[in-house]
Amino acid sequence: MGAEPRECVPERPVRRRPLERREWAPLILLTLAVLAGAGLWIAGRRGTADLVWAAVTVVALGPAVWTTLRQLWRRQFGVDVIAVLALAGALLVGEYLAGAVIAVMVATGRALEEYAQRRASRDLRALLERAPRQARRRAPGGRIEVVPLDRVAAGDRLVVGPGDVVPVDGTVEEPATLDESVVTGESQLVTRAAGEQVASGVVNAGAGFGLRAGKSAAESTYAGIVRLAEEATARKAPMVRLADRYAAAFVPFTLVLAGLAWLLSGEFLRAVAVLVVATPCPLLLATPIAIVSGLSRVARRGVLVRDGGSLELLGRARTLLLDKTGTLTAGRPRAAETVVAPGGDRDELLRLAASVEQLSPHVLAAALVRQAREQGLPLTEPTGVTEEPGRGVTGRVDGRLVRVGQLAGEPPEWAHRVRERAELAGRSTVWVSDEHGPLGAILLEDPVRPDARRTVRRLREAGLDRLVMVTGDRPRTAQQVARTVEVDDVIAQCSPAEKVARVKAESGRAVTVMVGDGVNDAPALAAAHVGVAMGATGATASADVADAVLTVDRLDRLADAVEIARYARRIAVQSASVGMGLAVVAMVVAAAGGLPPVAGAFLQEGIDVLVIVNALRALRGGLRRRDVPPHTRELLDRYAGEHGGVRDVLARLRDTADLVATRPDAPECVPALRAVHRRLVDDVLPHEAAEERQLYPALAAPLGGEEATSTMSRAHVEISRLVDRIGGHLAAQPDGRLRPDEVPDLLAALYGLDAVLRLHLAQEEEDYFSLSPADDHPDTR
């Protein structure tokens, strides 16, 4: 096996920029000027105070006019036009204090909006940085020269080193092991034989190999992905502020009412009073406050949303598209099952494989070594280690020749069954052999995230009514994951261009969110209304075109973000509606002459205070997930850690069941049964009993009552019953032989226990253990 894939450029950490003081400087200066004017007024220098307030009004009017003209030039019509008219009207009629108060409110809204949008998107920078810029080309005389990528032409012979990104589309000249997940989404490593085509952008996960360039860099697959992302970003409609949607109805109403007040009374002052009261401070203040509060809260949950418009859209989303590899699944291989030849030893097989693989940086080798160390197996330093690209690694362990990788020669009958089992389960197979033949196989899987199923349920409860999984993986594997997490639709073997097309089709029907982690997801993230990247998994390219980035490797934080976004938007709409309703009442009074401009300005201040206090509610509430007390988290972590030992017993239980099914007369059959029964009694049953006694009562409060764990308690009873049933069969066999008539019932108990225990562990991990994240970002209490 070869080298582990690595990124071409270092991962840049996703972090929030510090608050820039200049964002608040205009607001602070205007507020100080207004207060200075008030001091002058109290001191009896009213003329000077009016000059100061007039200056404040003029200073605020300039940027407001510029913003309004720029919006009108773009054929946009927002609430700023009312502020401009109110400021200008206050100057014309000499109501300088009213104008200054309006100026402070406008500056406050602008500062909050800039604060909400200060994390400007870096767009495609990392995607472009990840693209290879040079290539190793074979020169005459056997030399290898490094040339700029734009000098590579079709027909050139290149060398792709371990961990390198394939620079151009081409044909491999020797066997190659590739990680194609960044382009296709395929979660398993792929072996390409000599003469097969490979796409640019995939990572060499094995030893170096020769490549015959088939296209230039500009015509290759990776360049196409970059162009797709650029085009999708360019076509993406600009975010429309929530306040501006209200302006479509509110601004015309305000202008008509002000005009009627002036026309019917003949007093321009009444029109100014209407405009002053109508100044949309509830929109310019309450809405940004609610949205900024939402941005702050999702950041504390480990989700960075780039601007308020994205958060607002996230709160209105109805459709969610999710990538599979690295999003719904862990994105890293894990040893799921070890199968040995008849009479073999599982622990010894894993120990031999992991010992040989210790010197290999291959991603699959790391999974085997990690599994062996978790089980406490003593590893031996191998000697004479050699690697064959695409075939495997060979070495000697304690003087014994061991080969790990592909299976050579005609496999025995039991190996055929292992292959079928791996294919049906969607797992990849690593064979372990010696000089006499295969010793067994280790089945690897890309496991579904424990929090994926719970997260999907929470997303539905939050209002997302259509969830679709899009992946470049095989249909069988994709369908298995889709059934596990319960999405509405699944699209397998989906190319980057097809993902973009699917996102566009869904976006035409509803506000759509796309979640992904790979380079192949970047164009789809850019095309969606809201693109969400799994940034903690090292997906720099997808993170930089996304509107939101999950900075922790937890999918359930997406559900947190959606719930908070919906709550913040609801509070913003509520605050704006209440504020505008009160403003309309005040406008009618002002039109009738009952409210002069200065009094209207201070009344508007009172309305502002009311809606701001309401908007601050967005700092709390809205999350459906209950907080887990520290003591309960400790219990969850402890029992989650014990699941590894239970799964080891499960693997031995399955091996024993297979032995009873195929060779019930074998001398080792009953001893194997006794050994696994002893492990069940000594390890599994005490674990289940302790959970029943300590963990489940502690979970009652966070989960809303004891009924939430009643199903799991019933599973404990069934597990204990099946273990006793197996023990009863063993007690009836003093001679160490199984009677043919009892084999069917014993098999039913063994396979039944295997199924019940596997389901029970999965349910606990999904429903309970996912409540205790390792890196939580709790809300401020």
Task: Tell me what you see in this structure.
GO terms for molecular function: ATP binding; ATP hydrolysis activity; ATPase-coupled monoatomic cation transmembrane transporter activity; cadmium ion transmembrane transporter activity; metal ion binding. Keywords: ATP-binding, Cell membrane, Membrane, Metal-binding, Nucleotide-binding, Translocase, Transmembrane, Transmembrane helix. Its main location: membrane. By secondary structure, the chain is an alpha+beta fold. The chain has 4 domains: 214 residues, no CATH class; 103 residues, Distorted Sandwich (Calcium-transporting ATPase, cytoplasmic transduction domain A), CATH 2.70.150; 112 residues, 3-Layer(aba) Sandwich (Calcium-transporting ATPase, cytoplasmic domain N), CATH 3.40.1110; 142 residues, Four Helix Bundle (Hemerythrin (Met), subunit A) (Up-down Bundle), CATH 1.20.120. It is built from 26 helices and 22 strands. It has a 7-stranded mixed β-sheet, sandwiched between helices. Helix 4 runs parallel beside helix 22. The two termini are 51 Å apart. The N terminus and C terminus are likely disordered.
